[in-house]
Amino acid sequence: MTTIADGFDPQSLEYRNDPVAFVQPYVADNPVFFHAPLNAHVVLRNEDVRAVLTDFETFSSGAFKALEPSVEALATIPEDQKRVAQLVIGGGILLNLDPPVHTRERKTAQKAFTRPRVNQAAESIEAKAEALIDGVADRGEMDLMQDFAYQLSLSVVGDMLGLPPEHLPRFHAWIGEVFGLMSPIDAEPGTSPRPDDDVVDAYARMYSAYEFFSEFVADRRANPQDDLTSAMLTVTDDDGQPLLSNDAVLAHMVSMTAAGTDTTANLIGNTVRYLTENPAVLEQVRADETLWDKVVEESLRRSGIALHLFRRTSRDTEIGGVPLAAGSMVLLALAAANSDPSVFPDPLAYDIHRPNIGDHLAFGTGRHFCIGSPLARPEARIALQTLYRRLPGLTADLEEKINYLPALTVRAMLNQRVTW
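RE: above sequence
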């Protein structure tokens, strides 16, 4: 039996504004249902999402391709641009890889992404946050996302990767293109709400950025520095041969930058909104700064920054009593899993004292647990502490219309006005 949930639209503005609130009517009555526009079965319940994420033999991560415009528009995109888009999205980023390739690639990347490097990056966060606040403190207002959150997170991960500061805005724009072009592998051409000309232009921008940063990676291989990019390029096997190609390193740079920028920046932005809505929580944290870690965890659970993960069944199976044939696409709604009332009672409440506050799936679980999470948590905590210490009257404009990156995988805010 295949169930269908009327009114469910994961690409709507209502969904993006508050995915946790949007999914509540569906979690109990339609925990697994078919969504025709994406040709995918949507999975909402926490137990089912966890089961899928930990069963890589049945549920393949190779579920993404580059978004395709209409057949007519697709024919106008040069083959080199199509190849690069598929290389980065379909065959490069860790999110889309299965074992044994994923195991090898992630293990190799983690050899370079060490705890000392994370600690070194964390040491610079407060100074970077202070400098950004110095530039806006006298204004009494700013766009929190563009003037602070994205600049901070991009600077931190850029330093780790060794990207020159002047290249950071272009690299971040490229990350947006990558996630904006990620599409379920079974999606039909032209089914995206994005206009054809926008998609065609995105292919061209992605290709241009790929060429530019490929030259950067090639230079780092020839002239290694003390940075994460060079460290990935110089990891070798037992015979002294490089374990990662230039394209693989570039794909890992995309993965790490996305995890280290969009996730962290939006964690900061959403938390300021929640603390504006819940002044009593802010007063508790002001009185006891050890609570900031709990604030970060509850914001991760409540905000739905990582919107969806996709999987594809490699054999006949079932989820929540719904049978799925081999080759079926599965959409895992993380916002729903993180607000399942059976796991998180009163899920819409912003409660930093939940006994299971760290049990959310904001960073995934299992083999694909977010590689950047050890940096994202302390970065958000330090940034928020610095913001509220320097700008004690910090308040989010809750009436402002928020614009989002047009992506299925992340809920990335592009603006948030704040005053103090």
